[in-house]
Amino acid sequence: PLALGLYTVNAVYGDTITMPCRLEVPDGLMFGKWKYEMPNGSPVFIAFRSSTKKNVQYDDVPDYKDRLSLSENYTLSIKNARISDEKRFVCMLVTEDDVSEEPTIVKVFKQPSQPEILHQADFLETEKLQMLGECVARDSYPEGNVTWYKNGRVLQPMEEVVVINLQKVVDKSTGLFTMTSSLQYMPTKEDANAKFSCIVTYYGPSGQKTIETEPVVFNVHYPTEKVTIQVLPQRSTIKEGDNITLKCSGNGNPPPQEFLFYIPGESEGISSSDTYVMTDVRRNATGEYKCSLTDKSMMDSTTITVHYLDLQLTPSGEVTKQIGEALPVSCTVSSSRNATVFWIKDNTRMQTSPSFSSLQYQDAGNYICETTLQEVEGLKKRKTLKLTVEGKPQIKMTKKTNTNKMSKTIVCHVEGFPKPAVQWTVTGSGSIINKAKETKYVNGRFSSKIVIAPEENVTLTCIAENQLERTVTSLNVSAISIPEYDEPEDRSDDNSEKVNDQAKLIVGIVVGLLLAALVAGVVYWLYVKKSKTASKHVDKDLGNIEENKKLEENNHKSET
Asked: Is-contact 244 306, C-beta < 8 A?
């Protein structure tokens, strides 16, 4: 490269400077020399080499002591380049007749150290011009330039908003520059996350270069412009018994730490931190809640609705009633929204609400009235009614001849609660029959049956007893030779007698027809007698023991 038409050598600070002698070696060369020129133009010789004796001599110049080296081709090298080496050096070749000279310009460059932002502000405040920091780049040559950036864009000076001051200081001992650029800045709220950096532009042997600092983000303080109140935890609905927290926040930085909370029913605000806790809230907590800064300059509000659900069951708990009695039942609900009510009996959901105008045994059980608010999670109420239906034992006896005509089945149909104990006896002997079989006790009803094959007419007694009463019913049973049939259970006693009389009459006619071929007269006599006997002992509700004995004597005489 040439500088002002002269050959220039660019060197890096601290490296070795190499300057070739750009002259052709003439014939008859005696020696070569190197010198540099002082600012006033006076020469200072620094190196000498003889062409004949091949010896090298270095002049006593303090700045170049032990730093010079002159080769056989008269190339001069200077170790550990310094800023002071920026001079005009001249190579001289001398013969007896002539002196040839060729100058070389030396330029020295030094890259600055990694720049850094020092004296950074702890925080920035909006609407206030303040020192953000200083960008420092040390030991540069030649001097460079410093540029500030925000979010990758150049910060241009602006009065009372962006003030930049650049200082360049040279170290007299080394000649190196230290550049310090201070930035005063008035931030806005939008600068909260802005990245500030500075770039140093400098020159090197190959041209212009740059080096950048690490970006810095500053904490920007700005006042609160809006207050917000929240209900925590965030859920769609609130029910009685919940714990809730009111949280008040401001959008300033730093955020405010103290607020005033306004509670329904309280005329003055309650001073608190940014939270206000309410535990086990009740329905009277429904209302508008507010919070504000302590100076009451800003305020926000929210409405809280505490949902509730009340259930009243009448009657409830354990209830004991008698069969046939009426029992009005009501399940009333009071709630903050429309509630769903349903009934469960013995773990089975009912289609309709229970209503008891005349209690039956099957009405007994465990009833649950349950209600829910479907829109409010977890809000459910239930109450129970344990209904017991009691009744004195009621007995109905039936009899029939089994299909094999070898035995008869006598059934004692019993109703009552608590479950009656059943005992069978034979009237006259009073003996207890222990071979009875019982059906399952369902809805206050069950049956006890025995199978007998009487050789003669007998009277069976069924005794049913519970805590309320002892009931006794007797039934006359004909000998096995006389068939008998079931009586419909839904008929009255009078109807039962008529049905049984008709049955006996039919049986008599059948027997008479079978014996008519042999002796019509005997068959007729037996038919009349048997029909009378059957009509007398059919009554199923014989309670009078004297009448039973007389009936047995008449039957015995007739048989005889």
From this structure: no
H or E element, residue 554: helix 545-559
Which residue reads 């001599």 in tokens? 57
B/e letters for 281-311, b = 16+ CB within 10 Å, e = fewer, are: beeebbeebbbbbeeeebbbeeebebbbbeb
CA distance 343 to 352: 7
Whether 394 contacts 384, CB under 8 Å: no
Distance CA 443, CA 345 (A): 14
Cβ(395)–Cβ(473) below 8 Å: yes
- Which helix H or strand E contains 144, and what residues bound it? none
Distance of CA 249 to the CA centre of its chain: 24
Amino acid making up residue 377: E
Do strands 99-109 and 88-94 pair parallel, antiparallel, or not at all (unpaired)? antiparallel
Write the pLDDT tens digit of every residue in 240-282.
Answer: 999 999 999 999 999 999 999 999 988 888 999 999 999 999 9
- Which domains does the chain possess? 8-109 (2.60.40.10), 116-221 (2.60.40.10), 227-307 (2.60.40.10), 309-389 (2.60.40.10), 391-477 (2.60.40.10)
Nearest to 450 by CA among 424, 478, 484, 487: 424
Is the pLDDT reported for residue 511 higher than 60?
no
Q: Is 370 left (phi over 0), alpha (psi -120 to 50) or beta?
A: beta
Report the pLDDT value the prediction gives residue 516, as an integer from 0 to 100. 53
Determine contact, residues 538/548, Cβ cutoff 8 Å. Answer: no
In the block, residue with structure tokens 């019509």: 520
Task: Answer for the pair 322, 280: CB distance below 8 angstroms, yes or no.
Answer: no
- The pLDDT tens digits of the residues spanning 203-250 come to 999 999 999 999 999 999 999 999 999 999 888 899 999 999 999 999
Residue 524 has pLDDT above 90, yes or no: no
